[in-house]
Amino acid sequence: MSAPVHLVLGATGAAGAATVTHLRDHGANVVLGGRDGDELARVAEESGLSETHKLDARDLAQVSGVIQEVAERHGRLDGVANLVGSVLIKPAHLTTPEEWEETIAVNLTSAFAVVRAAAPLMAKGDGGSIVLAASAAAQTGIANHEAIAAAKGGVIALTRSAAATYGARGVRVNAIAPGLVEAKMTARLVANEAQAEASRAMHVLGRLGTGEDIASAVAWLLDPATSWVTGQVLGVDGGLGQVRTRPKG
After folding, report:
1. What is the spatial distance between Cα 137 and Cα 235, in angstroms, rounded to a whole number?
2. What pLDDT tens digit does each residue of the chain (249 aa) get?
3. 19: left (phi over 0), alpha (psi -120 to 50) or beta
4. Nearest to residue 202, comparing CAs of 218, 217, 186?
5. Distance (Å, rounded) from C-alpha 247 to C-alpha 249?
């Protein structure tokens, strides 16, 4: 049997790059997608992979074009992981219209674009798996997360609806819901030790996530071994979304 073909969008972020490496190490044929061409080239070189696609995942037509191109080139498309995302920590009244629109576009529109393009294509073949990126912030109330929680809450709703729509045609749609992950995107949130300690304390396991934590969960959901799993939101969050730490003392 030939190696599965997986497309990772957001391949230049911490979670995306780790997912690329994890899938490669487990024998998959991995295609990288992202907005920054230089960063794409760097991740491709570090992972020993060559097929990259520069695109803006907020653009439905661009996402559709890349997914179609990958499927035509390889004769199949087994999985797509959309790990494109952003972080905005602001109360609603301080969020500008531009920040709101960008948060929705990056996090929700990109997810919709992937489902819109990949699900019907996979349904024409042997099926496949789509993994989207939600957030623990969409599952529990965290102050100053209104815009990102709304966007990621939309991803959760999209995941479940798409799973219902395409499941009978062999397409699985699931989401991961991370807590705070160490990455360039989140570095300013833990810029000093006091901030870092406060962030770690919110997670019952006492640490922030890593790209590898996310990668292993994404790979599990892409794997045909999980062929009876769809419409699920998998918390990969150190407990942030569902449990609370014990008070000290």
Report:
1. 11
2. 689 999 999 999 999 999 999 999 999 999 999 999 999 999 999 999 999 999 999 999 999 999 999 999 999 999 999 999 998 989 999 999 999 999 999 999 999 999 999 999 999 999 999 999 999 888 888 888 999 999 999 999 999 999 999 999 999 999 999 987 765 655 565 555 666 665 555 667 667 778 899 999 999 999 999 999 999 999 887 767 777 776 665
3. alpha
4. 186
5. 6
Neighbours of 141 (CB within 10 A): 9
Q: Rounded to whole angstroms, what are the CA distances from 211 to 24, 70, 160?
A: 15, 25, 25
What domains lie within the chain, and their CATH numbers? 5-236 (3.40.50.720)
**CA 42/CA 165 separation, integer angstroms:** 37
Amino acid at 161: S
* 8 A C-beta contact, residue 179 and residue 243: no
The token pair that represents 83 in the structure block: 């790990």
Q: Which two tokens stand for residue 14?
A: 């911490």
Contact 57, 84 (CB under 8 A): yes
Nearest to 81 by CA among 143, 161, 153, 172: 172
* H-type alpha helices, the chain: 14-25, 37-47, 60-74, 97-104, 110-124, 146-166, 193-201, 211-222
Q: Kindly report the pTM of this predicted structure.
A: 0.91
Check: CB of residue 189 under 8 Å from CB of residue 195: yes
DSSP 247: P
